[in-house]
């Protein structure tokens, strides 16, 4: 890459925006050119806009403290300053769909953390190790948008990234039914434990909209391109429950699965150990060297001990055993704001850049 690509972060003051800043600071491919947020944060320095609400346990990078935040609605101005944008805005779904398309139509690719476009038929929902081939739909999307280089790519919901990679490695055996319960961290709501005292010593058995996403989004991730759209698979059928637990970071999943061709335990462990995707082949900066890690210990993975494996970009698995109703059951864990959110988006952008979908606007 001759020069670093210039990046804009839309929704820079929020939890995911803050994570993006820490991941993009000193990145080998990208440099932060624009920070943007709502009108109330615009025209303030980033440090003042955050106003004591820096949520991470690592320091705010010095380089962004005095950057002046722009209004996210200044689409043409921001687009003129960047090669692409990450979108993590806190807006209504219809507003997000509109503004992401506005950016794309300025020939500015959008890597979205939001759910607004995940079910748009020509917008790929990417887990880079699993369905990088879905990037081919971008050409159809650009025709619909009337663009030459502008498009939208979405990252899936953080809840599915705890268990979908483990299932994906076993696709040779044709999984038919999945039952999953996710135990999701407080940071998934954009809050810290201090900001949500009601969660102390408490479990809430409902997260709005999460179960539908957990059941539907994997079917698109595993789908196939037909003409100008991505068609969802019909199997495996997924049933989920999503529960909020008093943990700062890390989504755990208890998974039950049946297969058309039931594998042996040894075959499952071998598939998990050997599984790798395009990011590992390309050696992308944020790609985990070992994507799936299995623990033999009965009490692993544990959220506090294992969420940061592979710098928070790896998936950990444990407790594989046969089940009396399904074929097998096991437990998975992922870091929800790294692999599940900001880190997953950055890895997707790295893939897009390496594969030539995001290029410099300089000289165009």
The CATH architecture classification of the largest domain is 2-Layer Sandwich
Strand order of the largest sheet: 3-2-1-4-5-6
H/E element sequence:
EHEHHEHEHEHEHEHEEEEHHEHEEH
In DSSP terms, counting alpha (H) and pi (I) runs of 4 or more, how many helices? 12
Gyration radius, in Å: 20 Å
> What's the N-to-C terminus distance?
16 Å
The rough form would be described as: globular
Q: Quick one: how many beta strands?
A: 14
Helical fraction: 25-40%
Main sheet record: 6 strands, parallel
Structural class, by secondary structure, is alpha/beta
CATH class of the largest domain: Alpha Beta
Q: Which regions are unreliable across 5 or more consecutive residues at pLDDT < 50? A: none
Q: Could you say how many structural domains there are in total?
A: 2
């Amino acid at each position: 890459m001759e020069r670093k690509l210039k990046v804009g972060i839309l929704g820079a003051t929020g939890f995911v925006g803050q994570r993006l800043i820490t991941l993009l600071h000193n990145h080998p491919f990208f440099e932060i050119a624009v920070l943007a947020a709502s009108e109330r944060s615009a025209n303030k320095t980033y440090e003042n806009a955050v106003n004591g609400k820096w949520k991470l346990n690592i320091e705010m990078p010095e380089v962004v403290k005095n950057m002046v935040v722009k209004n996210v609605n200044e689409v043409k101005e921001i687009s003129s300053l960047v090669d692409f944008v990450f979108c993590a805005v806190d807006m209504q779904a219809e507003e997000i769909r509109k503004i992401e398309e506005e950016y794309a139509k300025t020939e500015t690719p959008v890597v979205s953390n939001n759910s607004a476009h995940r079910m748009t038929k020509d917008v790929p929902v990417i887990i880079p190790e699993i369905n990088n081939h879905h990037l081919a739909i971008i050409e159809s999307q650009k025709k619909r948008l009337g663009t030459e280089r502008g498009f939208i790519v979405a990252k899936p919901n953080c809840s599915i990234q705890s268990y979908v990679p483990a299932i994906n490695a076993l696709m040779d055996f044709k999984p038919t039914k999945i039952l999953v319960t996710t135990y999701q961290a407080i940071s998934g709501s954009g809050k810290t434990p201090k900001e949500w005292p009601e969660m102390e010593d408490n479990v809430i058995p409902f997260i709005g909209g999460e179960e539908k996403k957990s059941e539907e989004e994997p079917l698109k991730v595993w789908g196939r391109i037909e003409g100008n759209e991505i068609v969802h698979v019909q199997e495996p059928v997924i049933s989920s429950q999503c529960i909020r637990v008093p943990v700062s970071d890390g989504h755990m999943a208890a998974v039950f699965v049946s297969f058309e061709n039931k594998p042996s335990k040894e075959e499952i462990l071998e598939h998990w150990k050997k599984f790798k995707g395009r990011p590992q082949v390309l050696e992308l900066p944020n790609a985990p060297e070992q994507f799936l890690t299995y623990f033999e210990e009965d009490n692993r993975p544990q959220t506090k001990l294992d969420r940061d494996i592979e710098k928070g970009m790896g998936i950990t698995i444990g407790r594989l055993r046969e089940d009396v109703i399904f074929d097998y059951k096991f437990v998975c864990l992922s870091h929800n704001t790294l692999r599940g959110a900001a880190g997953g988006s950055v890895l997707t952008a790295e893939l897009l850049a390496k594969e030539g979908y995001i290029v410099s606007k300089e000289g165009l």
